[in-house]
Amino acid sequence: MISQLPLLDQGMLARARRPAFGDASLIAPWRRPEDEARLIDRSAHGLAALARALAERLGRSPRVALPGWIGSQALEPLRHSGAGLTYLPVSAKTGQIDWEVADRCGPFDILVVVHTFGQPVDLEPARALCARHECLLVEQCDHVLAPAAGLGDAGEVALFSPHLLFPLPEGAVISLTGAARDWADDLDRALGRPPLAEDDRVWLKRRLFHDAVPDSLRRFVPQSGPSRFEADPPLSDPPAPISPTDLARRLLAAVDLAEEARRRRDNAEALAKVVARLKDVRLLFPHATAVPYRLALRADSAQVAAARFAALREAHLPVESWPDLPPRVVADPNHAAGAIALRNTVLLLPVHGSLLTDELARAYRRVLK
């Protein structure tokens, strides 16, 4: 079925029957051999733990700078850590941080750059800013399939979220590179020993159900997410950190990065051809070469985005807006004009590897005319 979330296929389930090895082997694809890395449940908990570790060293709450175009819900654990958050203005065209303005917003202790939708950010200005402010550079690679040139190779800390790109109930990686390797003990204390996640059988049954539903019955399956383009999911208290279950570990060991990359590229290319026929919507990253998390589209206006969103929802086809901006960003439209413009015009279509390329393109072509 054409779904928003990656579904389990029989090949991955068969491979997952084998027992998982230790954490070092499981997370090897998301770390360099010389790095210190840890398997955690969610990258948001890793960033919060890093802030707590830094607070212990500094004797005060750390100052964390983030791009204004960032999801608010994922920042709840960081807010609960006591860190002071500064949202940096971004370009309304690309979503990249306005580095000239950012330099005047300091000082910072941590600078977070986000490779949104898996597309690499120019990290030279980020490194220069971190050198001037003597702060840690954190690469948030939640949408990145695996490290690559320009993705997860420049910061002192890199955060990956395999559970967002593969059918996993939980599973993320925090990797300490370079001088930050000395922080491993501090990070371990901040992470603590979370309890084991609850039984994943409910999650497994839900994913297997969606995989078994033929696409012809998609209209009968309840849709997730906001029903209107303008709506955002309500903020809720962040879930407590947990340790990934044995099922999550075995599924993580069973992922096929090369095959997933190929399928995502094929699906994105097929949908891009559908979008190329439209006059009011275009690709947000027309020259992208990285493995995509979603196919990101830019509408000519908020009205166009809302209409396209509604038409796809009416057809029971997955579509998302992005992101639910932090309240402080929304409250400062002059400083955050770029982030707000992107929130009001960007649409996201699924391209994950459990989708069938021809079926995907055919379904969206019927609606996107």
Automatic annotation (TrEMBL):
Keyword check for rRNA-binding: no
Keyword Secreted: no
Chain positions covered by the region annotation Disordered: 223-243
The entry's keywords: Coiled coil
InterPro entries attached to this UniProt entry: PyrdxlP-dep_Trfase (IPR015424), PyrdxlP-dep_Trfase_major (IPR015421)
Coiled coil, from the record: 251-278
Protein name from the UniProt record: dTDP-4-amino-4,6-dideoxygalactose transaminase
Natural source organism: Magnetospirillum fulvum (Rhodospirillum fulvum)
